[in-house]
Amino acid sequence: MAGYPPAYAKTPFGKDRLKVFEWLKTIGLDAFEAQMTYGPRTSLENCDTIRRLSQEFDIKVSVHASYYIVLTSSEEHKIRKSIDTLKRTFDLADRMGANVVVLHPGSYYASDPDKVFDTLTRNLHRFFQESGPSHIGLFLETAGKKGQLGSVEEILQLARLQSGCYPCIDFGHVHARTCGGLARPEAIDSLFCTMREYGAFTPKNRVHFHYTPIDFGPQGEITHKALEDVYPVNPQQDLFDPPADIPRLYHPRYERIIENLSRIDIPFTVISETHNSQEQGALALKSHYRNIL
Asked: What is the pLDDT confidence band of residue 256, given thresholds at 50, 70 and 90?
């Protein structure tokens, strides 16, 4: 589960964010993605507490790095600041017991995607040279917007090229970036075939996933949706469409995704990012997974 859903604030635990691990245990979940999306600001004291409580309640912790890290940039001051921020994020992730840091690679800056890909490759290499060996993996996330580097193929290729980098496949982002590309079950199957072709599921590799239904437009992602959210009905269209066509749920749906995940032989984590209902998405995913096994 990513962050703190509204349901958490309504529980007896809700006044203390550090009690989220106990809450997750009570509702039957076992993963939490800490959000450092606006910078690595978590105090060392809180990091130590997160480590202790996550271990006590057997909750796996991952970290989502800052949106302001832009390793696709060619401007030295931005690269320097981004590398330093990512180093700090790794330090705090290590302190809290996480071995996964998720990162959005960055924008294309309206430039040639191939040149931006090369820039990112150089900057990733520079980061790992400076930071040195680590048990923490940098998981590059597929991007939901077309103007950002982060197609499935780009992410999988980067994971091949740079030691220490791994793929974070966000199913909602893939669906939005491709303007509805994961609406059909066969398209989800094809996505998993692509991951296999790139060796994402071989024993030496690691992989991480995000899931949410999503709304999108011509340029990709607009906003995350909850599992039960439906497309608004166009009053004019409603005059002609049969009632069976309504309601239409947002995609991608999780059932076929889970069926494919059940055939993976390496460990993985799926983080639910369903809108204002992260725990509901996570529980639905986990229940369906258990029913298949």
From this structure: very high
Write the DSSP assignment of the chain as a string of letters: -BS--HHHHTSTTTT-GGGHHHHHHHHT--EEEEE-TT-S---HHHHHHHHHHHHHTT-EEEEEPPTT--TT---HHHHHHHHHHHHHHHHHHHHTT--EEEE--EE-TTS-HHHHHHHHHHHHHHHHHHH---S-EEEEEPPSBTTEE--HHHHHHHHHHSTTEEEEEEHHHHHHHTTSTTSSHHHHHHHHHHHHHTTTTSTT--EEEEE--EEEETTEEEEE--TT-BPPPPHHHHTTS-GGG-S-B-S--HHHHHHHHTT--S-EEEEE--TT-HHHHHHHHHHHHHHH-
Residue 74's closest CA among 82, 85, 63, 84? 82
Strands 268-272 and 220-224: what pairing?
A: unpaired
Q: Each residue of 39-64: pLDDT tens digit?
A: 999 999 999 999 999 999 999 999 99
Contacting residues for 143 by C-beta, under 8 A, at least 6 apart = 104, 105, 149, 150, 151, 173, 177, 220
Is this prediction's pTM over 0.85?
A: yes
Q: Which residue has the tokens 């040639």?
A: 112
Lowest mean pLDDT among 17-31, 88-102, 227-241, 249-263: 227-241
Residues 36, 63 contacting (CB under 8 angstroms): yes
